[in-house]
Amino acid sequence: MTITENSSRADRSPDPSRLSRLPGSSETTHAPAAPLTEESDPFCLSASSAAALLAGAPWERFAVIGDSLSAGTGDPSPGYGASGWAERVAGVLRRVRPATAYLNTAEIGATTPETLATQADQMIAFRPDLAHVPSGANDLICRSPDFACVERELRRLFELAADTGARLTVFTLGKAFVVRKYPDWPDRVRRVNAFIRQLAADHDAVLVDMWDHPVNSRPDLLSADRIHFASAGQAVMAAEYVRALAGVLVAQQGGAGPGVLGVRQGGAGTGVADERQPGGRNAKRGDGA
What we know:
The chain is built from 8 helices and 8 strands; from the N terminus they run E-E-E-H-E-H-H-E-H-H-E-H-E-H-E-H. Strands 1-5-4-6-7-8 form a 6-stranded mixed sheet, with helices on both faces. It has a two-stranded antiparallel ribbon with strand order 2-3. It is globular, with a radius of gyration of 18 Å.
């Protein structure tokens, strides 16, 4: 568990400055030899760019619960920082609001029922205004998942998190996440992602849709366990999360600025936003923190 208190493109095309031209060609293409780094990765954001997207963001109590996906577990990637996505997002929020408090109770291997039993009370006591909930990945790691039970427990978790008054966020699971001992694994992931999308819509949550994100096709995306995103993937997830939150801010302001919304045609990277007041549902709680 980590607790820190008071630590002090709508167009999704790659940035042209991060591309190179082949000799003798007028076409722009990725440089074939140079490996990506965090600075050259077209899906990543610098800390300053991320903070600029969230300028004026109201959130200053950021809670993350769940499993290894929530924890940001992953192996190092050459050329990328080692931090997980949640720690990266907390850092961006602190650049915007230096007094931001961050709670991460995520446990590797936790199922949704285990998260409800061992982490929910800590989240409630923390009184978040921004809360990230898990996507149910570990509920699928069994011989025959009970999908009715999976949906029911995820719904309980979303309802409990929503009752804190926080703006909720959630990822869908990416295609690259595969447990090969189960031949029907892709279908399992599709089903739980469908639950997540519906629950996000039901609770006005911010959905960061990683299922079909282009990063899934990268050969070096996964850690040695072939399950968790390595730190390059963590950096991309953090950037997509920031873009999705920026989309909420833009929607609340009644317009869309270039490079902000984080909406990718075809579903990946979509921020589900509404027109609630800044900070989301915490308005009904009646406190400022």
